[in-house]
Amino acid sequence: MPWEEAAPERDPAAPLVLAEDGPHGPVIHAANDAAQSFGAARGGRVTDLRGLCPDVVVEPADLAGDAKALERLALWSRRWCPWSATDGADGVVLDTTGSDHLWRGERGMLTDMDTRITALGQSVQLAVAPTHGAAWALARYGAGQDMCSPADLAGRLALLPVAALRLDGPTLLTLRRLGLKRIGDLAALPRATLERRFGRDGKTMLTPLRRLDQALGKLPEPIISPAPPRRYHVLKRLPEAVMDPQPWLPDMMATLCADLARDGRGARAITLALYRVDGITRQFHAGTARPSRDAAHLRRLLEKHFEQLDAGFGFDTLALEATRTDTQDAAQTRLDGGADAEVALATLVDRLSARLGAAAVQVPAPRDSHMPDRAEAWAPALQRIGKGRLADTLAPAGLGGGGLVAPPRERPLRLLQSPERIDVLYAVPEGPPIRFKWRRKPYLIRKHQGPERIAPEWWRAPAHARLRDYYKVEVEEGARYWLFREGVAGDGRGAEPDWFLHGIFP
Amino acid sequence: MPDAPLTPDKRSLDPGDGFVPNPPAPFIELGVTTCFSFLYGASEAVDLVLAAWKMGYHAIGVADRNSMAGVVRMHAEAKVAKMRPLIGTRIVLVDGTTFLAYPKDRAAYGRLCALISKGRMATPEGDWQEKGRCDLTLDDVAAHQAGLILILVPAEDIAGLTADLPRLVARLPSLTHVAVAHLYRGDDTARIEQLDRLAGQHGLRIVATNDVHYHAPERRPLQDVMTCIREKVKLVEAGFHLHANAERYLKPPEEMIRLFARWPHAIRQSLVLAKQIDFSLEELRYEYPRDDVPEGCSPDDHLRILTEDGAARRYPDGVPPKVRKALEKEYAFIRERDLARYFITIHEIVSQGRKLDILCQGRGSAANSAVCYCLWITSVDPNQHDVLFERFLSADRDEPPDIDVDFEHERREEVIQHIYNRYGRDHAGLCATVIHYRPRMAIREVGKVMGLSEDVITAMAKTVWGSWGRSVGDMHLEETGLNLRDPHLRRVIRLTDQLIGMPRHLGQHVGGFVLTEHPLTQTVPIGNGAMPDRTFIEWDKDDIDALGIFKMDVLALGMLTCIRKSFDLLRAHKDVTLTLATTPKEDPVTYEMLQKGDSLGVFQVESRAQMAMLPKLKPKEFYDLVIQVAIVRPGPIQGDMVHPYLKRRRAGETGETIDYPRPAPPHDRDELKKILGRTLGVPIFQEQAMKIALVAAEFSGAEANQLRKAMATFRAKGKVSDHKARMVERMVERGYERDFAARCFSQIEGFGEYGFP
Fold first, then answer.
1. What distance in Å separates the CA atoms of residue B744 and residue B606, rounded to the nearest whole number?
2. Which of A400, A449, A467 sits opposite B186 (nearest CB)?
3. Could you tell me which of A321, A317, A307 has the C-alpha nearest to residue A276?
4. How far is residue B326 from each of residues B332, B387, B403, measured CA to CA in Å?
5. By CB neighbour count within 10 A (0-12 exposed, 13-18 middle, 19+ buried), where does B546 fall?
6. What are the CA-CA distances from residue B728 to residues A156, B696, B699, B709, B753 (Å)?
7. Hey, is the C-beta of A430 within 8 angstroms of any chain B C-beta?
8. Weakest-pLDDT range from A96-105, B77-86, B652-661, B690-699
9. B239 and A472 in contact by Cβ < 8 A?
10. What pLDDT does residue B712 have?
11. Which has fewest Cβ within 10 Å: A402, B201, B255, B665?
């Protein structure tokens, strides 16, 4: 059951494979029907397939995403019974004991499963059996929608290939070499021999004998069903439709925040769904920069949406959910009663973002680049604030990505948006500046430091880009400026170099 | 046997290019990082030395990161350019403290090698070190510092250094200098002043260097790409991993003096340091293991005893005069070149193989000799075959001898273990093989760093034919349908071209053994291999050759195992006991099978091309097979020698005589017949081509050697045409027809493309 989610715009008839990294280059993780017709099989080399079918489309497999989706599917399948778990990378196991009668028997349950999973756009192989092992075997090697009663368990299993016993590759290879093809062949052997042959390599639970016992129900194999993730969800059904749901919000929010506080968590994103009596649903979302369980604050984030609310014939159900939560430790308020600046800033960012849109509120973010103009980027404040200490994120030469520290070079506090051309008197070719004229005012330089040479980023700059020699200068009046000369005379990239003023030191 | 060499031709300077020694320059660059600091330096020794020579340097240092892998190249190139190489290394400790270390003499060099070996073989905790890593601590350096010149390379943070320096000075009496560099950081003047003062406070001096990572500023893009490959980041995300500018190139002495005008003593100190260094890699030359020769006996005498003893067994009826003559000639040559120990050592290993009943067979330039036959190293009887010892004898070939010994592939490990036991692990080691970037790998890595998508990279990499391309020119990028005029793609291609041929990492050579007199770790650093319990030295076989250290290839040949098993089967089932020497020769039934092309599974003649040739050539004797193997190769095929040979051979059967071109009367009329007689007038072997040049065109030994080298170097097309003019003119002068002479040379050129140098 490859867990593929092909993009809808893609031609379904074109060969497509998902690839994962193997020790000697990518190997096929899954293939669609078209690719399979060319001979693509799981575990094969992508290079080989390219030889057979040159225009095959190869996409990287998202194994972690698949596992997550499977977990969700396992939880979703609790609609049929309360006890389910994922089984390997491509299966879900359900303990349906005592649940099948709700679906008019096992046959009815299988039909319902098939219909619903097919409706999700997935193909599925189903089987019901008295043991986990047998169900695994019949789902993969059986005739399709197999049902097996305890009485004919051994008989049914005997006809299946040994691969149906959930064994690993080397063991299967050994069994094939021994000529044991079907489970029946294996079951016919004396148990002691089997134990002697396979029981020694430390894989005590994965030997053919153990697997056989598990499939036949002679060894217990409990299914561990994970608890569903905690949802922070408050539902309020109103006795009759109301035009303004706001009066009910404080209560709901208080309940939600109490829930969060009990688990030591705070909301990063909340959603309020309003159900109108005519069947139309309105959903409002809000995000926070830091986890929060401050009911008043969260409620304020949603406020804007009520200003232009089309209530129609009124709302009869309200649902409030914290869709994303983070751990939030309880914090002590300061003795002097002052508020923590970081919390205050985060609160401000939340409210501004809620009102103006997350993209409209931005903070500068350091970027790893030697070029001063590129050393700073703007990022949405909601994502930047609250990540680590505020001082780190806002410091001009703070930690960049990858934990690499920028070389400690002094940068001006004010950097002009675009460098301004100036006339400079300097010793040709590489001498320091002596005087310059900026915005029609002459300056005499008293002191200078430099040059700091910064070469263009050749991979993005045009080939004729010139390097910059930055000088820190102090003029007679005491003000300090950051000048640079673009290029060096004779670098073959243009005429005489030009000078620019790029920044002002405090 | 692959026709293309397993390693690409090393680019090197040509001694013929007229290098004159530079007068002493006022400055010597000591902080040179070559491309053997894998993925740090972006220039090869050739480029660095050539650039330095042009700038007027008379000496140049080399200091790769915790490695000596690149020093031999630097040494060899500098020698060619008549410059003095200063051999050192850049010691980088686990805590990031960096030194330049230059040994003052041979003993200190040995200690430095031992220091690197320690870091490469064991972790600071004493566990097995993983391949390619070198972890050193201050204690290690302190233990090996005697005789070294240590130059501290200060880190970015001077405040930290101020706190650290007293500790370092106390631990390291050899620490005498602090390296200062003017890299256009903005605060260079202040920084150097600070360092100068700090050094003075601790009794140290500053020495100028430019922290050279490449020979010219144009190499910065390649260095940036290498940094990204090393750090596994994309170029656009690399940020501060990269250097801010392109100033770390080799600057001319005048420029360095200008930059350090305020600190002339820093410039002067580089000369002072160079004066203290009294070590050259030449001191490692010809180290043969001593203990094979008994006390009180010179190696030459011992070799004579061993050879005569073997000759008596080889020729129970007395040594034939032809062999006797050859032996005497070879003795004299071996004595002159002081090679007796070499033969004795090989004899020792081969006879041990015999004792263990392992089939073995020697080959290589020096193996074609009567001495080797009498020492039982080879089984080619010089009385029956013309041995080509001349190939090795030519005194112009000033290269160490070369004997490869093949052993049964299943039992080679026993021989290796014997060598380790006999000479000790500290005297015997495996060579490294330098793994270079090949076009396919290079385009992959550059493409990834430059942010090309996986399928574009794959499409580009697919256009490489075979795996031994030497440049982007060998790729067929237009086939990808990409727009090759796109500036970004053009950058990728240009960088790929520069990256191809750069060393990538060291691998383990298949069987090249080095044996030394001093402990091996004091001759060359040893590192751990990826295989457990395997160690190999940092130099590859070219380096070993360049230094003239004893080397022997212990190779594994599956066919020898096959023969051994055949002998066993014969003995078991047919009760026939055979050895390599007693196998019946010239068996007509065998030749009949071969003439039919029925040679499946027969070594050397089992390929499709060989099988197709067998019925045409119809071998009747052993020498026919020698020709058969030699002729089905790209060289003779491209030189169009196959059909003339087959024609002559058929003509010979019908009794026609072959008409050899002759020179004008004063010269020997039959000179070509003597050379080409055995191959019916068609030059098939390279020796023959060289002999034509020597005899018919009267090349001197040195000229012939140059021709051979020119043929071997792929890029030296221009030089080959010089030789062509010379050879053709001389042959015409001596009365040959111009047409014939030109054809002769084009045949030599055919070898040049594919032959063995």
1. 31
2. A449
3. A317
4. 10, 9, 18
5. buried
6. 88, 10, 11, 18, 19
7. no
8. B652-661
9. no
10. 58
11. B665
Distance from CA of A259 to the nearest CA of B (A): 42
* Helices and strands (H, E) in chain B, number of each type: 31, 13
Quick: pLDDT tens for B156-205.
888 888 998 999 999 999 999 999 999 999 889 999 999 999 999 999 99
Q: Which residues of chain A have pLDDT under 70?
A: 1-10, 199-205, 333, 337-339, 386-406
Chain B residues closer than 8 Å to A462 by CB? 487
Q: How far apart are CA A270 and CA B474, in angstroms?
A: 60
Tell me the backbone φ, ψ of residue B554, rounded to 5 degrees. Answer: -100, 100
Q: CB count, 10 Å around CB of B366?
A: 26
Q: How far apart are CA B126 and CA A423, in angstroms?
A: 64
- Does B238 contact A470 at a Cβ distance shorter than 8 Å? no
Question: What is residue B196's predicted lDDT score, i.e. its pLDDT?
Answer: 95
Whether B239 and A463 lie within 8 Å, measured CB to CB = no
DSSP assignment, residue B685?
S
pLDDT surpasses 70 at B393: no
* Cα separation, A360 vs A351, whole angstroms: 12
Please, are residues B375 and B311 in contact by the beta-carbon 8 Å criterion? no
| pLDDT reading at B747 higher than 80 | no
Q: What distance in Å separates residue B356's CA from the closest CA in chain A? A: 37
Residue B108 clears pLDDT 50, i.e. is over it? yes
CA distance B614 to B597: 5
Burial (CB < 10 A; 0-12, 13-18, 19+), residue B7, is middle
Question: What does the block give as tokens for A151?
Answer: 């009485």
The residue of chain B nearest to residue A47, with distances taken between CA atoms, is B458
In this model, does residue B531 exceed pLDDT 80? no
| Two tokens, residue A183 | 């489970």
Distance from C-alpha of B546 to C-alpha of B734, rounded to nearest angstrom: 38
The pTM (predicted TM-score) of the whole model is 0.73
Is the Cβ pair A449, B487 closer than 8 Å?
A: no
What is residue B43's predicted lDDT score, i.e. its pLDDT? 93
Of A62, A73, A74, nearest to A29 by C-alpha is A62
Q: What pLDDT score does B713 carry? A: 53
Q: Determine the Cα–Cα distance for residues B184 and B280; give it in Å rounded to an integer.
A: 34
What is residue A402's predicted lDDT score, i.e. its pLDDT?
Answer: 36
Residue B647 pLDDT > 90, yes or no? no
Q: What is the CA radius of gyration of chain A?
A: 34
For the stretch A488-499, pLDDT in tens is 887 778 888 899
ipTM of the complex: 0.76
The two tokens of residue A265 are 């968590």
Q: Is A425 helix (H, G, I), strand (E, B) or coil?
A: strand
Q: Any idea what DSSP says for residue A432?
A: P
Instruction: Give the model's pLDDT for residue A52.
Output: 84
The single residue listed with the structure tokens 């800033």 is: A345
